[in-house]
Design goal:
This protein is mainly alpha-helical. It is 54% helix and 4% strand. It has a 3-stranded antiparallel β-sheet with strand order 1-2-3. The N and C termini lie far apart (58 Å).
Length: 319
Amino acid sequence: MGAGGPAVPEPAAPGPEVVAFLEHLTIERRLAARTVAMYREALLRLEASAVAEGVPLRAAQPHHLRGWMMQLRHRGLAPRSIAIALAAWRGLYRWWGRRALVTANPVDGLRPPKAARLLPKALPIEQAVALAAHEHDEPSPALAARDHAIAELLYGCGLRSGELLALDVAPGAHARGWADLADATVHVIGKGSKRRSVPVGGPALAALRAWLARRETLAHPGEPALFVSRLGTRLTPNQLRSRLKRQALRLGLPTTVHPHMLRHSYASHLLQSSGDLRAVQELLGHASIATTQVYTALDHQHLARAYDQAHPRARRKPG
């Protein structure tokens, strides 16, 4: 089928070779469940395209992969979604290569279309601090303490939502993260199974201690998760987003707040204060400093606003 041909129905389930690769990502690479789900969807599309053209996946050549990538563009997938698909495809062929099942990776050299780089949204410092420090008005003191600790950790440590939700009460063989109150540190496993330790400030430590004093009133016996729902099990991403949005609305914040916005706020405000791009990169767990450099643009915006508001000759546009 050509690049502009009709869409091919995707199989309901991946073939056994793709299943084995996904199990490798889950068990050995320990990728996040959401990442594995996105890779699964991308590989289903790859299998569908290969079947439609009668090309065994292991025999596919670069021109096949290029055409299948063009199909994704014609189907209206965003550049970021195409980039994720290429990463999944490249990973599959690389895995096969290590097992001597293919002699070359046909995805090498393929690049997704460029997308306009949007600046991450960060809260002003006073709004972020207000959200983190807010004493929650909840019928349940345990839920109030939990939500306070969550907001303090998201803004005070710059954690990804998945990193925060993966935290356990204590370290263990299967723990993907934990909070060490004695050392004032949070230990997490971020993207690419990269481990890092992040310092925890005094307000977040106090909020964590207050939550841990009440956690047993919610948590099921033996539940390892640091943050649990009212049902006693590990808090889910949807529950986290919903609770944070509710807190922001109660404070009257003028924007829809989500967990990653507090991570952006952490990075932007830390960079404004320290100017140390390398340190912010390490604290965020970015593999490349280019990812962290986006916050320098946010810092420039902050400086421009401060100039406009404070300097007597700041009106740069003619009236």
